[in-house]
Specification:
About 70% of the residues lie in helices and about 5% in strands. It folds into two domains: about 1-45, no CATH class; about 60-155. It is built from six helices and four strands. The structure holds zinc ion.
């Protein structure tokens, strides 16, 4: 007579596992992960951040990216000023509204384009922010000079 390896129940010769233990182990190893287990893993690390992700964040040149973001903000402000054709002071409401439009567009572009999987590429985000701010401010700037050129042309006639 031999005995079951798991519960010690007596078995016919040459068997190591009783039917009950065999079925239980089969279910444990073949059933999909329960919803609770999946949920617990997700809550403990929702963005699935690994150690190498943290190394990436640390490798990122912070002062440069901060400079890019700051430059982008200044460009937004300039864009807002250009948008009202420099007729208002830098701190007037219309200039701030123009700067906010530029800021929101640049931020959205950075948010959408700099995402890799579920995590952020901080250095890429700051570059995209600066470039988009440059583009929107440039658009406002070109728009302002185009309008003034048209007005001059209308005056001259
Ligand atoms: Zn057993």
């Amino acid at each position: 007579m031999s005995k079951c390896l798991y519960c010690g129940r007596e078995l016919p010769p040459l068997q190591t596992l009783c039917q009950e233990c065999y079925e239980r182990r089969y279910i444990e190893t073949h059933s999909p992960r329960s919803l609770f287990e999946t949920l617990r893993d997700f809550v403990s690390n929702p963005l699935n951040i690994t150690d190498s992700d943290w190394e990436d964040v640390n490798r990122f040149p912070a002062p440069l990216a901060i400079a890019f973001c700051f430059g982008g903000l200044l460009l937004c402000w300039f864009g807002g000023w250009a948008r009202v054709r420099y007729r208002y002071s830098l701190f007037s409401g219309v200039v701030v509204v123009g700067a906010l439009i530029c800021f929101v567009v640049s931020l959205l572009a950075a948010l959408v384009l700099a995402r890799k999987k579920l995590r952020w590429e901080w250095d890429t985000a700051s570059v995209i922010f600066l470039l988009t701010a440059c583009g929107v401010a440039g658009y406002f700037y070109v728009g302002s000079s185009a309008i003034s050129t048209l007005l001059k042309a209308a005056h001259a006639r």
